[in-house]
Design brief:
The longest helix has 40 residues, at 16-55. It is globular and about 65 Å long. The protein is 76% helix and 0% strand. The chain is built from nine helices and no strands.
């Protein structure tokens, strides 16, 4: 029976250079994984713009990206997982835009008004084409309602950056005495639920019709007035 090689105590633990080398490989592999994941999500975003929810299929994503089915399933469990990623990316982009647009507003209520009315108007979308914005918004609204039932925790995580942004405005308003004292996170969640549910309902109603921008502006104003009175000190 052949003898097993004796353990070398010098090789019991990796050396410092081995650790550095392994870390570089891990970082390179992670970056490659994320690069392809971003490509898939960006492509899904484009498919929503082009054809709405019906056009967003795994086959369409693979055709447009040139990636294999294996590459897709290494990164996403399925279409629901991809849609959640698209939804989270849309929220992240909206929060970034809202932060930039309200950076020079000193009044927290003015910042909050802008955020609320922008959600209703769909201004958080990064496309300048209103038809494309409404198509994408309707698709995401439909999925928001469905994922709220099938993947509530994941949806909550995707929404967290936007709720946190609303919460910050409410907390600042409480500090300045213009927003009534309450749990800011709870208030932000209630406010978001009201605004998003109303906005989603309107988007779905207008999904196959010409959007009425004047009516939408009035709705945004009415929702904000309702919210302002509900949170005012």
């Amino acid at each position: 029976m052949p003898k097993r090689p004796s353990a070398n105590p010098l090789n019991a633990n990796p050396t410092h250079w081995e650790e550095r080398s392994a870390q570089r490989v891990l970082e390179a592999s992670r970056e490659q994984l994320l690069e392809r994941s971003r490509l898939i999500v960006d492509t899904a975003y484009e498919l929503l713009d082009d054809a709405g929810l019906d056009g967003l299929t795994i086959r369409a994503v693979l055709t447009r990206t040139g990636l294999s089915r294996r590459a897709f399933y290494e990164r996403f469990e399925g279409k629901d997982d991809l849609v959640l990623a698209v939804f989270e990316e849309a929220i992240r982009k909206a929060v970034k835009l809202f932060g930039e647009w309200t950076a020079d507003m000193a009044d927290p209520l003015e910042r909050l008004r802008f955020i609320v009315t922008s959600i209703v108007m769909g201004k958080g979308m990064d496309s300048g084409n209103q038809i494309v914005q409404d198509r994408r918004g309707a698709a995401l609204s439909r999925e928001h309602l469905r994922l709220g039932e099938s993947r509530p925790q994941d949806l909550r995580a995707a929404l967290q950056p936007l709720i946190a942004l609303i919460e910050q405005q409410l907390a600042d308003g409480m500090t300045k005495g213009v927003v009534r004292r309450d749990n800011p996170h709870r208030l932000a969640t209630l406010l978001y639920n009201l605004v998003s549910t109303t906005a989603q309902g309107e988007l779905l109603l207008e999904e196959n019709a010409q959007p009425d921008q004047k009516a939408k502006k009035q709705l945004a104003h009415d929702i904000w007035e309702f919210c302002r009175r509900a949170i005012s000190a």
